[in-house]
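Appendix C. Worked example: glutathione transferase
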Amino acid sequence: MALQLHYFACRSRGEPIRLVLALAGAEWEERSVPEQQANGRRQMPPPPSGRSPQYLEGAAGDLSNPDAFCFGTCPKLVDGDLELVQSNAILRHLGRRFGLYGSSASDTAAIDMWIDGCEDARQAYNELIYGLDGPPFRDDLSNESPEVAAALAEYAPKAAAVLAPFERRLRSGPREYMVGAAATIADVAVMDIFDVHVHLWGESSLRDSPGGPFEHLHAHRGRVASLGGVAEYLASDRRWGRINGNLLG
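Step 2, the predicted output written as structure tokens:
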């Protein structure tokens, strides 16, 4: 039975999971959680035209159903009889399952540290994205809107601060990967959190931003993106065009 990922029809917290599955060469199916939740806790715009989501139906897609989503959140991974929520728990499970979690206990500890660092960066990023536009979401905002541009300028020093530890790590050596000589789940997490920041400003603008030019993070992003299964996934129509649950990012 193929693995199943249950998440919204966007990248966001589901994307590192998809990238790890692609890196591992795993087969997986995707079932989308409906954007309009009956309990009103989340009001996302529908996905852009193009790829059509395969939605979960009824209670299976209801975030308020504790039998489907025990913490009321997604993503969820279904791996045979195992059902996991919490995105970083899913990453760690996949790392163990596919041998992408380092070759020693110290490697695993370091990978955990970098994943937790990515979570800190994700929290800062999400405060920006959903602080500007949260449920119910607006359809008149974009990265080019004046109020968004002003918020991005204010966020830039914070972005530089949360990205700096990853740049320093890769610069020391220098290193091709975050831990060890091969890609792990930490590399996918770092690549993804840097990628969403690149999309905020554009690659050239981020190079010129405070704390830039993030030379080693840019190189690392390209390196991970070029790995076999990852490159194939990134070039496919399986990747959602929308980054977040709103129209920003």
